[in-house]
Design goal:
By secondary structure, the protein is an alpha/beta fold. It has a single domain, classed as HUPs (Rossmann fold), CATH 3.40.50. It is built from five helices and four strands, in the order αβαβαβααβ. It has helices at about 5-10, 35-50, 70-80, 95-100, 100-110; strands at about 15-20, 60-65, 85, 115. The strands form two sheets. It has a two-stranded parallel sheet with strand order 1-2. It has a two-stranded parallel sheet with strand order 3-4. α3 crosses α5. The mean pLDDT is about 85.
């Protein structure tokens, strides 16, 4: 939020924070839907806190899908977004290879501008 806030404020833009809950497509999910929804609400609360003194309009969306990148791109189109901004998840190259690299898919499959922000750590 700190990284993109000045740009959104200067452009007069709005912000939609999207959390995609990945469905396993028939396989057991890694965590319960309730746990993932609670985590999404924590993310949304953090975003609201970071923008509490801003005049930006913040909306939040929980989406469900078997392909996280595809779901993000579809949501961006539905919302008529001008760009997709994200912070890549951590993890080893092996882990990304085995589980699918959402960041790579976003960058390579999106027809919208994609901005990858560094992790705050």
């Amino acid at each position: 939020m700190r990284a993109i806030r000045p740009y959104l404020e200067s452009a007069g833009g709005d912000l939609t924070v999207v959390n995609v809950i990945e469905k396993a497509g028939g396989a057991p999910d890694k965590a319960s839907v309730e746990q993932r929804e609670a985590y999404a609400r924590e993310i949304f609360d953090s975003a609201r806190d970071a923008l509490a003194d801003s005049e930006l309009t913040l909306t939040t969306e929980i989406r469900y899908g078997t392909d996280v990148a595809e779901t993000i791109i579809e949501t961006a189109h539905e919302l008529d977004a001008s760009a997709i901004v994200f912070t890549p998840r951590g993890g080893s190259r092996w882990l990304r290879l085995l589980t699918g690299d959402v960041a790579l898919s976003l960058v390579s499959e999106s027809d919208l501008p994609v901005i990858a922000l560094p992790d705050h750590d």
